[in-house]
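note to self — DONT lose this again. spent like an hour looking for the file last time. sequence + predicted structure for the chain T wanted, 277 res
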Amino acid sequence: MTDEAYSPACRVMASRRRVLGHWGALGMALVSAGGVTGTMASGLPAVIARVRRSVVAVGYFQPTASPRFQFRGSGWVTGDGRLVVTNSHVLAEDGRIPEPGERLMVMVPSADGSRSAREPRMANVMRREAATDLALLELEGRPLPALNLATEPATEGLEIALLGYPLGSVLGLSPVVHRGIVSSVVDITLPAPQAQALTARNAARLRSGAFEIYQLDAKAHPGNSGGPVIHAATGEVVGVINMVLIRAGRESSLSEPTGISYAIPAAQVRTLLAQTP
């Protein structure tokens, strides 16, 4: 591999306009009634204060592990307040045999308003879209504040912020904010699947050609995968963090960060939600 590689905040990937290697799925979310509105706020701090209540940590509860919550990535709440959007690659691989007693778990912001995600919730996978590296989960328990999707595609120069739990298993589950702009709208072409994996859905997507992804000049790290990219002025979700450009191995994302990340546009989340019963 060359001295620069693309890595989904949880795994290494390669190439810029044509992303090669493991992709997973891409996607975006649906506008929710009564959620976080798209009205102008009094600056980014006020926007973050609202949005952070909807950002969650995704992982697995393993009763025999230490710690018992095995952090995998970030996610965010939409819809009726019980739907969580994340990356498909954040979840365990399809076909993997779970550990005894293992359950998908989401750590949500505490009801007392503290900054750390400390309240555990069990969750179920409602839909998983490998072609876009998106997944939709359903939370158990009370609904949370839901984020709205932006109604228009993002354009170059749009000021954005991304939220999530970079290196959450090391640094803890307090949401972290990075700010930047949409620096480019890049065409992505999925690699041709192996013949034995060529399904009707994969064939249809290949025929449809490339789709777009947002290149950001904001830092992201392992653990940011699945977190929301928001419009800095309104708090509406414009994308989902999926990859980060690194110079070599994953360790270089800390020692030599490039400040270049990629996000799946919100339109892909809308499609995912529309296809979910």
